[in-house]
């Protein structure tokens, strides 16, 4: 009975949300993004189709996501949804179970670093992958660099996740700013991004998803205190730091 009520209420809310979509689209403080322009953007769901994380196609059959999105899950309990901008549009794109999950062997928790995982798909997908940053790409993390974050996560700290793919642009902050915000911040393995006043950010459900600059995947959405709060930037995996660990998993044939 309660579940029916929840179902009816969420249906009503979903209808209401469609009507006001243009007024306040977000990740938080963001806007709609098309899947055509961002074909490598994927989301992860459970077997029932509930979306809980993001990911990026980095090779035709490899999805990079956060370790905390994959940990404790079996491949058969997971689905990678690709080619689908609207989570409710079952006719677009594909939903596939991975055949295997690789989690960085040093991963403990998101705020300790190594928050990376790779899902291997049963076959190549017909969507353009996005290459990840490598050792030589350190300049892409310079403070002030405006980076693009994408996902289907919450559009308010305690709100619902987004039906549509959203994007926002946030500036990379200097390491001392990130450390002031979070004493556990690990400068070598992470970067943080956001405005000092907050307002624009990733949120729950965006984890595992892409941070993009200059046609490269430079980060993975990882953690933060709340969402879009003043003085609490989003924290992202500094992918160039993990390129060496990722290459043999993403390109096993080479
Ligand atoms: C999360 O819980 C999460 N504001 C993702 C991103 C941020 C905070 C939390 C950054 O998945």
TrEMBL record:
From the Swiss-Prot or TrEMBL record, give the protein name: Trypsin
List the Gene Ontology MF annotations in alphabetical order. serine-type endopeptidase activity
Membrane spanning segments where? Answer: none
Gene Ontology biological process = proteolysis
- Give the UniProt keywords, A-Z: Disulfide bond, Hydrolase, Protease, Serine protease, Signal
Return the similarity comment.
Answer: Belongs to the peptidase S1 family.
**Pfam families per record:** Trypsin
InterPro entries referenced in this protein's UniProt entry, alphabetically = Peptidase_S1, Peptidase_S1_PA, Peptidase_S1_PA_chymotrypsin, Peptidase_S1A, Trypsin_dom, TRYPSIN_HIS, TRYPSIN_SER
All copies of domain Peptidase S1, residue ranges: 27-251
Q: Does the keyword Endoplasmic reticulum apply?
A: no
Signal peptide limits: 1-22
Recorded hits in CDD domains, A to Z, give: Tryp_SPc
């Amino acid at each position: 009975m309660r579940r029916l009520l929840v179902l009816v209420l969420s249906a009503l809310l979903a209808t209401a949300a469609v009507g006001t979509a243009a007024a306040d689209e977000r990740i938080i403080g963001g806007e709609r993004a098309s899947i055509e322009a961002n074909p490598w953007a994927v989301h992860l769901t459970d077997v029932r189709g509930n979306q809980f994380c993001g990911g990026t196609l980095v090779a035709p059959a490899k999805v990079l996501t956060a370790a905390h999105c994959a940990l404790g899950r079996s491949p058969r309990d997971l689905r990678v949804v690709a080619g689908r901008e609207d989570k409710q549009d079952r006719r677009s794109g594909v939903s596939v179970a991975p055949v295997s999950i690789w989690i960085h062997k040093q991963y403990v928790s998101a705020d300790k670093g190594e928050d990376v995982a790779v899902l291997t798909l049963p076959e190549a997908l017909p969507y353009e992958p996005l290459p990840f940053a490598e050792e030589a790409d350190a300049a892409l993390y310079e403070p002030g660099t405006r980076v693009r974050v994408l996902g289907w996560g919450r559009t308010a700290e305690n709100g619902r996740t987004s039906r549509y793919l959203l994007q926002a642009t946030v500036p990379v902050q200097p390491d001392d700013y990130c450390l002031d915000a979070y004493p556990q911040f690990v400068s070598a393995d992470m970067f943080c991004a956001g405005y000092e006043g907050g307002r624009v950010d990733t949120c729950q459900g965006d984890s595992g998803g892409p941070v993009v600059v200059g046609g490269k995947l430079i980060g993975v959405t990882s953690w933060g205190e709340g969402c879009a709060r003043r003085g609490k930037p989003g924290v992202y995996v500094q992918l160039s730091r993990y390129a060496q660990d990722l290459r043999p998993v993403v390109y096993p044939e080479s």
